[in-house]
Write a structure and sequence with these properties.
homotrimer; 328 residues; alpha/beta; Rossmann fold; 5-stranded parallel beta sheet; 4-stranded parallel beta sheet; 14% strand; globular
């Protein structure tokens, strides 16, 4: 998606992981790595984005997601403005464009956009002024690129380079913006094999064309996997015609210790959160030694700091000195 | 209104533009000019109000207006507290005074007040402790002084000194706190001629006594105007008896390219936003080359920074060095 | 309550004033004393908690209380995150623990917790990760320790050491988390005599065992008191069977100038706010020369800064130099 890169090939917006060059994906992870060091200190803050204004523009409420972006911005010393756009009339057309024009005129530097409609983040990115960046925090069923990047970052930290790895994504692939973004990010980073495991009713048509292996059988799909990425099952899906019941879903696709035995002995287990215990994962797995679910959350701050600093600053590296050394 | 000035004639509160001395109005605009330079840099921040606390005390919700004050405060490095006072019981009498006493006791330095009742900001200013300043962000039909000041600032930037200018204000003068504040600010700054253009039903009685020329006919009123300031038409007015319909209003008072031809060839077009396209302005005018509507938004941050720094610091000048030079 | 202290006896969480060692209570007040000096300056800010993240986790809404903690955190230069947990499903059990795990994973340093259920703050403290601190901002009828500490601080500032003082607490002791925390704090600090004054229906059983003197008669209880601490009467209690009417309550337990005559000639009058004028206090007393009610509010910021800095930093002293000297 060419809207994401400027003419020099630098990342200007992050809308999707689809089509991002491998070196750019790698640079984001490398930058996140440098921020991870900062976050381990007691002064978890760098002055990189001081005097810049980042707007959390949430057309769909999500305290959880907003919190991660707000923390990332604070730890880059940016000023943050939280705007919840409640009325549907403002979330489209002329009124939306007017709001963007106004926020740009107030010299805001970046918009973190969450929207219930697929394509909304790209629409906004195509309509913002030069010099303003857009970061997609989830748009409809389309994409959730920072989640996919933090997942890739977590895999790399625990399992090393992605080339030799077999990675299985399990659950409601059809409705998942997370799965879509994960597939593009992992393949873009050169992952050895990416599998999707789901009942036929929860698989998009022609998903094979993305370059993934498709499994309807959980045990076959987990065979030898180095990484097992579970998706969140939306409760509303389970009440529809696509799935008979939570219990039946768990019996076929829930991750248990027994099922994990077929995977690689050092396989890690991931989930974007919040976990429905007993639906997607057995609690013993979710809270067990292979789970890196909370590491994903921690890594999410560093990855979002990396994305913000790259789209706003064009820098690829965090400063080696945190704020305490710089300002005092 | 003497509540605004301290015994030394310094601005302590900004409640209204009425009666402000010309040199004080000029000083606000000059200070805003110096902040405009800061806002053009990537580090849009000065340490002028570090350690000071500014409270956005909004008795009437307005994300848009709150945002402009919040950004202005952040860019002065002040701490900001947003308090939305939802219940009507707290917005009056003893409960209101108790809330003020408490916020003062917490050593807050300034209240930015928005209230549906005319006179509320002045009431609060008359009741705050010494050392606390009040900035009116719109009170009923009474006043909206920062809007008027940013308008005057925008005119001065585009057209130079106000003395030779003919400025036309068009629309619902009767219900507009913006119009009232504009008239006082522009005449206070020595504007050559201020005209109001509206149907008789939307004009206050005896408006001439303020020193303005009154026109019911749009074309006559625009004749030779250097500046055309359109007002926002509130939808609720249009459903009442005062106005027959949006369509008829537009046909008589809507600003079109054709109508603009009667004004000065280099006339600028202004609007406090958000624009009702096709009601107050033809979209081609709103988005056309004469429109400075988005410049008003940009200037609004600098003007609000100027007002905050003057009422809190007594300084008339922004520092020439932004935060990066000062703190690092 | 041993959850509050770490193995070295340092304060890690503040859940209750019950059982806190006297030297620790004294250290909190001494630290607050040093912050009081900072708050009197125009730059009311110290860099003690720069780069630390404090989360206001409010399961029960209270703008007033949240504001005091937010200001305290800002003036310590901490980053603040406000999270209002609206849904009851998130306020308990697995979902609550998941939220805590996530906020910990985001490397938040402290949770300020307000909850309608008694024991919620302790539950959270027992379940947070090492390195994270919990400050109770009021849990059900259990405790409100920062209010009690700011009360003790206010008494010490106005009346000196607590040993020789007779302190009367008046009102709805039964339902008051404030009264409970005050009793423990005052006795822990060595107060000479603590009295509770209330009708039998508003006294907990066996309250004498805490070490207080019980009075049902207001005049007898106020006799010779150095400090009169009024409690807030919740309106909902007054509609129940426990109390006949506001008017009757005031006639028996309302604080008037006449009643105050029986107390020490230099007695001070306190109230945690907001005051129901004419119910708990005659307005002439609430706003009179003996009232230190607004000083309590001011002191509340310094005391909350002290608690935050102690649980997070382990320091007992505020820096002698405020931010301006340190950073510029």
């Amino acid at each position: 998606m060419s809207v994401q890169l400027d003419p020099q090939g630098q990342l200007r917006h992050l809308i999707s992981t689809e089509g991002l060059p491998r070196e750019l994906l790698t640079r984001i992870l490398d930058t996140a790595e440098s921020f991870s060091g900062v976050l381990g200190k007691s002064v978890k803050k760098v002055p990189l984005l001081r005097g810049r204004t980042i707007v959390n523009l949430f057309f769909e409420p999500s305290t959880r997601t907003r919190t991660t972006f707000e923390l990332a911005a604070q730890r880059l010393s940016a000023d943050v403005l939280n705007i919840d756009v409640a009325t549907s009339s403002t979330s489209k057309g002329e009124n939306l464009l007017d709001m963007l024009r106004n926020l740009e005129a107030m010299q805001c530097d970046a918009f973190v956009v969450r929207h219930a409609d697929s394509g909304a983040a790209e629409f906004i990115a195509r309509n913002v002024a030069p010099g303003v960046s857009v970061i997609n925090a989830g748009d409809g069923r389309h994409a959730h690129p920072t989640q996919a990047l933090l997942d890739a970052f977590t895999i790399r930290r625990h399992k090393g380079p992605l080339e030799p790895l077999t990675i299985a994504i399990v659950g409601d692939i059809l409705h998942s913006r997370v799965a879509r973004s994960q597939i593009h990010a992992l393949l873009g980073l050169g992952a050895g094999e990416v599998r999707v495991i789901a009942p036929r009713t929860l698989l998009p048509r022609a998903i094979e064309h993305l370059g993934v292996q498709v499994y309807e059988d959980m045990d076959a799909g987990l065979e030898g996997a180095d990484v097992v990425m579970m998706l969140r099952l939306q409760h509303e899906r389970m009440q529809g015609a696509l799935l008979p019941s939570e219990g039946e879903f768990f019996s076929r696709y829930g991750l248990t210790e027994q099922r994990l035995e077929g995977s690689h002995p050092e396989a890690i287990v991931m989930h974007p959160g919040p976990v429905n215990r007993g639906v997607e994962l057995d609690p013993r797995v979710a809270d067990g030694p292979r789970s890196v679910i909370l590491r994903q959350v921690t890594n999410g701050i560093a990855v979002r700091m990396a994305v913000m600093s790259i789209v706003l600053g064009g820098q690829g590296e965090a400063p080696t000195e945190p704020l305490e050394e710089v300002a005092n």
